[in-house]
Amino acid sequence: MQLKIKDMTALLNIKEKTLYEWIKDKKLPAYKINHQFYFNAGEIKEWVLKNNIPVSSEFLEKTEGAPINLPELLERGGILYNIAGKTPAEAIKYAVNIMPIPPEVSRDMVTFSLLEREEMMPTAIGKGIAIPHPRNPIIADVNHESVTLCFLEKPVDFNAPDSIKVTAMFIILSANSKRHLQILSRISFLCRQNDFVELINAKRRAELILHCINEKEELWKNKQ
Description:
- By secondary structure, the chain is an alpha/beta fold.
- The protein has two domains: about 60 residues, Multidrug-efflux Transporter Regulator, Chain: A, Domain 2, CATH 1.10.1660; about 150 residues, Mannitol-specific EII, Chain A, CATH 3.40.930.10.
- Helix content is about 45%, strand content about 15%.
- The protein has ten helices and eight strands.
- The strands form two sheets. A five-stranded mixed sheet has the order 4-7-8-6-5. Strands 1-3-2 form a three-stranded antiparallel sheet.
- A hairpin with a 2-residue loop joins strand 5 and strand 6.
- The relative contact order is 0.15.
């Protein structure tokens, strides 16, 4: 979830002038995009807890949520085909422009967050697959979390560890670090299953992919 100046003043019960002073002094995490300040709700939650700042319990509870359900997350984020782009940045920008985004989060923020993480360290995991994700969670409500599977129009060099160009991306939008790691673990498990990787490399139909993921969810549960 993306918070604006008015959201932050209401949440923290402070004046706008005080908030701008805190931003200037770098007392809290903030992003300036297109001349406006935005705040990542996941980062703000961590900041609030770390500094013992009183806020509403509703704000804190929004990022806990139910157990991870990967098929549900993928149905929410969708499976997209023919994503154009000759570089990781171009492919990510193209995907963000057409993928489902929660109404309270701007596409600019999602793009900025994904590219920031990609510049720090490539997200390719091998076998032609990459898992772009923000460096810090940008979704506050777990009901708005998603995983979007994007099939690229042409292979793109993501500097993968096995040097194989990427043909598929799983874009993760999560509510907090713990849930992000759980989602990432689930996708990593899938990508170790040869039959699933074959489906991905063949860019099969969405219903076949979702059916396979549902089967693998049962395997995951038995593995625990």
